[in-house]
Amino acid sequence: MDLKLKIWRQASPTDKGKFVDYEVHNISSDASFLEMIDILNDELIAKGERPVAFDHDCREGICGMCSMFINGHPHGPEAATTTCQLHMRKFKDGETIVIEPWRAKPFPVIRDLIVDRSAFDLIIQEAGYISASTGGTPDANAIPIKKENADLAMDAAACIGCGACVAACKNASAMLFVSAKVSQFALLPQGKVEAKDRVKKMVAKMDELGFGNCTNTYACEAECPKEISITNIARMNRQFIGAKLG
Amino acid sequence: MSNKPYYSSITKKIIMSLMGLFLLTFLLVHLTLNSFLLFDKELFNEGAHFMGTNPFIQVFQWVLFAGFAIHIIYGIILQIQNWMSRPTGYKKRAFMEQSPFSKYMIYTGLLIFIFLAIHLTNFFFVKMGWVGNGIPEVGGKEDMGQLVIDLFHNGGYVTLYVVLILLMGFHLDHAFQSAFQTLGLNHKTYWGFIKGLSRVYAIVVTLGFVIIPLILHFK
Amino acid sequence: MTKIDSKIPEGPLANKWTHYKEHQKLVNPPNKSKIDIIVVGTGLAGGAAAASLGEMGFNVKVFCIQDSPRRAHSIAAQGGINAAKNYPNDGDSIYRLFYDTVKGGDYRGREANTYRLAEVSNNIIDQCVAQGVPFAREYGGYLATRSFGGAQVSRTFYARGQTGQQLLLGAYGALSKEIKRGSVELFTRREMVDLVVMKDGRARGIIVRNLFTGEIERYSAHAVLLATGGYGNLYYLSTNAMTSNGSAAWRAYKRGAYFANPCYVQIHPTCIPVHGDYQSKLTLMSESLRNDGRIWVPKKKEDAERIRNKEIRPREIPEEDRDYYLERRYPAFGNLVPRDVASRAAKERCDAGYGVGTGKAVFLDFKDAIARLGKDVIKARYGNLFDMYERIVDDDPYETPMMIYPAIHYVMGGLWVDYELQSNIPGLFVGGEANFSDHGANRLGASALMQGLSDGYFVLPYTMQNYLADQITVGKIPTDSPEFEAAEKEVHERIDKLLSINGTETVDSIHKRLGHIMWDHAGMARTKEGLEEGIKMIQELRQEFWTNVRVPGTKEGINIELEKALRLADFLELGELLARDALHREESAGGHFREEHQTPEGEALRNDKDFMYVAAWEYQGDDKAPKLNKEPLVYENIEVKTRNYKTA
Predict the structure, then answer these.
(1) Which chain A residues have a beta carbon less than 8 Å from that of B9?
(2) Most exposed among B203, C108, C158, C434, judged by the fewest C-beta atoms under 10 Å?
(3) Three-state secondary structure call for residue C207
(4) Residues of C in contact with A56 (CB under 8 A)
């Protein structure tokens, strides 16, 4: 396959940045999207140019490191797929592919396609956990948990923290990410003790960091590589109302 | 968090949705009243008279105006924050919104606001005697119905009215189910029903408001 | 020869750990805040240890290579975590888990460590449930378990196919809690490039490279914990993440820490095969697929060739022309033989010319299982995996057999540690895959997560405290001592040298060649000649690297090529040590298979008389051969047997 690429290049956080056109040739349709960029980078290095910087690590769709806005979609056009699991056979020969970094005020661009997502860590640090210190915990089977709730908690916990929800949302809202964590613990008896405090703190932090407001467009759910449901956002809203009223 | 009053994004959204649901209810009442015109002008006039004189409604109309104001002000605040949260946009962005009209709420909202202004100028302000020559009278009683019928004989006005009502329909299609989602009333067993109801509400209200001027125009 | 002291406590096996904890030295609460600890790595071992040490009141500095602690490669583990809970009432016990682990490791692990691992396994499950890890549950609300290779009981707890992710996020939550509380300070996008050892022999700090600014930074502490994972990426293609590397461990080795059993490398039989030269990474398919899938290759070479040329499709091969070679060779265990056995059998068939796909693949067929159980049941069991396979390969495994091939997955070797998980350098502790571990020569499925969390939550917080008890009067460790100066200077020199070569070969192209050498000469099946040749080739490649590599860019700012070059420089040395270890170990055991040492049927043949020891290699200088130290393995509680998977 031969492809034309339009890639966002920005040397540093303060650099203005611009799109640069590249061409790659003879790409196997079995190659992954990141392998295609690897090939481009090899050519750039051979030419003495600076390779395209991008985040990636596990390359099996679970670490949440990869983050590219490809042809108008976070992680590209294929549903329920991270960039690293996207393969070139999903593109047409000769196609022009536009590749941009995640865009959101709390996710500043560091270089090219790398953005700083530490805002997500700050939200989790605020209250995104159950405060159980090591040791002294009861037997794992001491509290039975309804299978349905355990399954729903797992659905929410599948979030990989990649930020595609923020990237997709026209408001750059982090509600899907935050609600997934709030939901996971709200559904488990162990998480109920701190539930009210948790939702208030995490929402306040999310607002403080400059994420936008949710307007229920549900773009996040459509683009989430792990298909996290917007019912988690509703659950967080319920939790929030409950916490504020009582 | 500082000590200054803090309204979280969710609090603001909840206020928006409660006001929105309130306005949705009002629209149904309004539509019911309008539909009287198709059957019996007198009935409509009686309804209008009741609305114009009943002390409870008199007080309540100011609550309604407040509802509009809060909904609009919060809508604008939220939108400005949302614009600010993405200072640099995308070069290419696909249409990803699953609730398609959600993308244009601020625009449809502002057009509804313009419509509201025209609407109020044409009816409410006339009735209050702030503009125009007042309501035509028949036998000592106000003939509100005639005012409406006269206006709807103006083809240009009907076109504008119908177009703006359609835009309002797009607003409503998203609004109804969105309010439920914001209030946390989303559950997998009845979410499909709410979304369906939302669409039905939007279509019925829009068609209702569109059909009435058309019938009156061509009658 | 240096005497290796593994510091195993006295007393009967079952009481050793309790006895240790009851008699260890403690640091009282106000003094804990006077103690600094460095933790490198935020996977299961590092994340859990940093969180637990922070909770205790120590000042912890934790470093990760990614942008967030949540992205450590522990996250990619799929299958599950073992524990001796005996919830299904099927006769499990701590002893049985201990026994299975030692046997699975081909009797090359340390008894006391492995017993402790089994002992604390139950606490791990309790801890994780309390943290909100959404383990799979039965309808009654109690925890579900499943069985895994190498065990006769159902003791594996799991969270769908994402157990590693959920356990890591649990540890990440605990770590985040401590970061918020201020007891743990987080440093992201930092890579350790050297260990600082003081004149008195104690490890007191690290040198890191800030991957954003390129700055070289110094950090000091009273003790250093390395939890930096394994060195599987030495083979270039592996199931490890792209940034997984062996440099932290290798730098510690060059500062005097022993490197133990580097040749024990686990090759996982069910990976998606290599499809092209540009390939960057291999993807693992869960071992659970072997429960229902049947592995085969064509019986006739010409059929295999026609499949490779895409002239016929796999389903067109009639039943009588298929060779279900695992079922043929191992009637009792069939497709469920341990990982090393299944991997070698696949290689044997492919080397003999029966491979499919590119020639390096075998079929894993679900046709019979679908016919027997129905497509829905198979979909419910493996739907996610089938989807993943289809996404990568573009073949529908419901319609045509999957293709699989073994790939590097995990390393049992690593830095040598004693019972306290302390290396021979005082103050340097090593946890998780980075240490030479409790798995002997081969690790059983669902045991890696168990070891990482055992080390992190329940072992290191105790043993490190024991070491730190007499450090409370030391005071802050300054970072301007000559040792820090020298270490930082060496790092700068190394980087300057790499940037100045300006040759013609990219880092990746040399890494790929190293990978081929390792795979061909020190991979699944090794020979004396092959290893000797491999060592020579590695030496030549290392020479070429240092004279002809091209590392563009500058020291400052992000320079990914420089990062990769630094890691590769260490792999080029580590690879040689691995091959030397494999060459010296004249036996076959677990993940180490020497063709000279096999039974007439082609099974691994151990040499317990001469090789029942841990090989702990000691650095002697770049131009000198490393010194071999031996830690004898003594089995007092287990009868040493030959592994047998042919008969029940």
Answers:
(1) 173, 203, 206-207, 212-214
(2) B203
(3) strand
(4) 242
The answer to whether residue B14 is domain-embedded is yes
The model's pLDDT over C151-186, given as tens digits with 9 standing for 90+, comes to 789 999 999 889 999 999 999 999 999 999 999 999
For C468: left if phi > 0, alpha if psi spans -120 to 50, otherwise beta; the answer is alpha
CB C423 within 8 A of CB C258: yes
Q: What share of chain A is helix, strand, coil (3-state, %, to 5)?
A: 40, 15, 50
Share of chain A above pLDDT 70, in %: 100
Of B159, B136, B161, B132, give the one whose Cα is nearest residue B146.
Answer: B136
Give domain status of residue B4, yes or no.
no
Q: How far apart are CA A102 and CA A223, in angstroms?
A: 13
The CATH number covering residue B165 comes to 1.20.1300.10
Bridge partners (DSSP) of residue A9 are A18
CB C106 within 8 A of CB C263: no
Domains of chain A: 3-110 (3.10.20.30), 118-245 (1.10.1060.10)
- Answer left, alpha or beta for residue C80, where phi above 0 means left and psi between -120 and 50 means alpha: left
Reading the block at residue A165, the tokens are 């929800």
CB C508 within 8 A of CB A42: yes
What single string gives the DSSP state of each residue in C569-599? HHHHHHHHHHHHHHHH--S-BTTB-BTTSB-
For chains B and C, tell me whether 3 or more CB atom pairs sit within 8 A of each other.
Answer: no
Give me the domains of chain C, ranges plus CATH numbers. Answer: 268-408 (3.90.700.10), 482-606 (1.20.58.100)
Q: Tokens representing C585?
A: 């170990």
Is pLDDT above 90 for C363? yes
Q: Cβ of A87 and C52 within 8 Å?
A: no
In this prediction, residue B1 has a pLDDT band, given cuts at 50, 70 and 90, of very low
Residues of A with Cβ-Cβ distance to B105 under 8 angstroms = 215
Structure tokens belonging to residue C262: 């580097």
Chains B and A touch (3+ CB pairs under 8 A): yes
Please name the residue that has the structure tokens 């830095």.
C415
ipTM > 0.95, yes or no: yes
